[in-house]
Fold:
Amino acid sequence: MRTNITFILLIFWAITACQKKQPPLQSLNGNWESIASGWILTIKDSTHYSFYDTTPISCILNRQGAFQEIEKSLRILNDTLYLQNGVITYKFLKTDTLPDLCSTTVTAEKKADPIYNFEVFAETVKEHYAFMELNSINWKDLYTTQKEKLGSNATNVELYQVIEETLEKLNDNHAYLEADDTTSALIDQLNTEEESEQEDLPKYGDFQIAEIVAKHHLEEEMTKDSWLIQWGKFNDTTGYIQIKAMWLYAALDIPKSLIKQKGYVDAYVETFNKMYEGAYIEKEVIGVANSMDQVMNDLSDMESLIIDVRFNGGGQDAVSFEILSRFIPQKLQVATQKLKYGVQFSPTIPLYIPATDNAYTRPVYILTSQQTGSAAEAFSIASMAMKNVKRIGSPTSGAMSTELPKTLPNGWHFSISNEIYMDNAGNCYENKGIPVHYELKYPEERQAFFRSIANDLKNDKTRISQAIKALQKP
Structure:
């Protein structure tokens, strides 16, 4: 799951394009402290901004730049500053001064100290991890045990291993840790050496198995100019839409030489990291919107539609919501969220999907599995609010929370789940996954599931058809 959501961290500052009328620039100047996220935003002379990650023992400059980069994402209501980040709105309150830690010089030696870095990590977890109770975590004991594994001469590799192990013990479905290149190379080498011999069975990637399934299940292929979405006729009355991912739709003009050097996905990530993030997320939404225009034009006459996200590991919630908007005739609240900080939570935040003209309102069947993760789960939970949608397959992976991205003093990046993502009734599906209306009981293990489908594609299609018939009965 961490591999599938790596790119989410990299586009943490992605901001939606549609914004409200802006407040006077002068009113935005000063220091703003976030509610529930451990961030401080400083705006100076309406020309520059600085963004800090803070804990009780640290203040780390995360990002700075020209104010115009974030200006359109901000608005003020009464005494609160609102920052729109993806589908979530973060709140900030004015503070007179920066914490002393933000103006205190930290030596290079201390920044590199594994013990200090672990303490900063631990403070972040204690303050923001949302699922201590759900996962029966005794944080005091876990913290003590993990810290004792780092001696006075601990190395970066040992620090990485201890943090990684801590995240695993927290059972955080959306946790992520990214070290510097040197440490990462050493970790990769260790992992390679420790790998045991694998069973001699075929292995499939997400995109590969999705392609195999779509090719078999489509009686009439209609796909045009898209490798991420395939569509056409499942049978004479039912359309089929295979959505492979909730990102990679943006037209980024990636240099061919970079693609040859790094491969398409890594080149894509490197390219959007050089962009203004707001422009990047807008391009993602524009890209998937263009594809969905063609999809819905081709399939609008079908009596029902199947949307297959069984092999979709996630991406951007904004992409998921753009796709679902094609099936929503009126603005709809589809989920709620709240953020963990200290011993409390932020007020509950409603999430909405706007309407689309000529929305498709006939029956829609969404196929999910335990490999349906991250933004594809946002897609699934949002569908629970849609009366014309039923879900078939197995519950999703249960990695619902939007992660909180943070920076360590040594420059490493990590994230933890600080959000409880709920349906409109306040139900949380972390670990459990979004339920289905018709259970097909897929194997839980990734490759076992992929092989079960690939080895009998005819049976997979038959089971889907039988599930739809069962759901159509009064």
Notes: The mean pLDDT is 90. DSSP finds 16 helices and 21 strands in the chain. The first helix runs from residue 2 to 10.
